[in-house]
Amino acid sequence: MRLVVVGGVAGGMSAAARARRLDETAEIVVLERGEHVSFANCGLPYFVGGEITKESSLLVQTPESLTAQLNLDVRVRHDVVGLDAAAKTVTVAVAGEIQTIAYDALVLSPGAAAIRPPIPGIDSARVQTLRTVGDAVAMRDKVLDGATRAVVLGAGFIGLEAAEALAMRGIATTLVELAPHVLPPLEPEMAHMAADELRRLGIEVREGVAATEVIPGATCDTVVLADGTRLEADIVVLSVGVRPDTKAFEAAGVTCERGAICVDEHGRTNLPDVYAVGDAVISVDPITGIRRPVALAGPANRAGRLVADAIFRPETARPMPAPIGTAIVRIGDLTAAMTGANRASLDSAGISYHTLHLHPNNHAGYFPGAAAIHLLVHFRAEDGLLLGAQAVGHKGVAKRIDVLATAIRGGFEVSDLIDLDLAYAPPYGSAKDPVNMVGMAGENVLNGTLKLWYAQDLEAVMAEHLVLDVRSHGEHAAEHVPGCLLVPHTQVRERLGEIRTAAAGRPVAVMCAAGVRSYLAHRILDQEGFDSSMLSGGMRTLKATLGTKASAVLV
């Protein structure tokens, strides 16, 4: 058996390594276009920023180590430019020459290429991506050679990490994002906290605006934005997205959808003995049914392993689960993470859902160092099935998102979270962990104990409801919703008549700082016959939703 793997790094190398562990007699050839066959993509920004100091630390394996450990025939600088499925051969460009290599089974792991928007000047030498070790070394060298200004185009995960890395080096950095907010997969109220942290790091954040031109200059380039802003830069980082690098294989008859390779549950393409994994493969979102590639290292690694199983042990091979898109990023002292579906994808799929906003502490409040975790969870309205979650905070974010990702994969309903037996000691959590609290709040929503209103509906709520602020006098004096009635939550019972008069038959929309006191007031009002609801996430979520408009809306 000769297995040929096209592309190394996550998916390809995982398939090749697993194949060797399953079959010592197989001939396994790995063809990698670049110079490095196994490197830490996700570590590149941290090398630029100086936290990873040695280039060698980025190299997970080398051709020599892979030959010694796994007896793999690894060939770098081998660019696969063609495929003949009938002859079972691939065509490879090597040092200006063309070779033909035969296979018995073929695994395609070509990855994705950076999108280069069609704007004038985008091919300037100062414009670069951050996808390879060579990219990272070149960017670091520019920093060390005296670069002082940078513009990062695109505020996705790599864009944010690149901006942070450059800012850590003392580079005056501007981050430009076409979407209305940074980290577009995050909900706006969560992304606002990320943008605030970027600004705290000294990064200028420009949201909702496109770059229209890059003007090369003798000493620097000028990036022109759609609003007329001109930004001078010694370094321009292009990070506006990726597209599957599949042109050669699609031309050879591999079925693709919007450029991504279509595979079955075992990674098989439409061509015999041809498999595919990684960023170039289309996946079906298990929550919304949306078909899209998922450019994440974890799913690619796991898929490579399962494809090797399908080739060498087909009778026991497990099907590849569709990735739910769990991801995390560090932004200064803040962590932002997400899993599952967001509001836009749920709306697009026509799924009815509820959303919870909670701000619990990462560990017991009485233990020093407690900090809020800002949690957002979507669950299906009809039965409470967990659909997606996001979290932003300084500590404890990864733990909670990982638990929620596991729950989504397991098909949990929101109320199932109540009964999770999670580790607790004061330095690590609370007796009621934030994840347990999500379950309790979600169950209350489903059974009618809790009725929510949302920050994005503020204008309509103000027009049709009595807004009841149950915070303290001091909090109210600092800022409040115009026209609200202030009744601190400990006074609600004794002032029911006043509230009833002020409501004048209207529903009552209760709010507090984070949602705890307003829930207590809401339950009193509900049992006293009021049509009552509470603001999900309280003033914290309201201000994050309003973003830069908060000062104009609140008084």
Tally of DSSP β-strands = 34
Terminal residue distance? 73 Å
Major beta sheet, specifics? 5 strands, parallel
**Strand fraction band?**
25-35%
Query: Per CATH, which architecture of the largest domain?
Result: 3-Layer(bba) Sandwich
Mean pLDDT: 95
Question: Which overall shape is indicated by the principal axes computed on the Cα atoms?
Answer: globular
- Derived structural class: alpha/beta
Percentage of residues in helical conformation? 25-40%
Radius of gyration: 27 Å
Instruction: Identify the strand order in the major beta sheet.
Output: 5-2-1-9-22
CATH level 1 name of the largest domain? Alpha Beta
Q: Do you know the CATH topology of the largest domain?
A: FAD/NAD(P)-binding domain
CATH level 4 superfamily of the largest domain:
FAD/NAD(P)-binding domain
Compute the number of structural domains.
4
Low-pLDDT regions = none
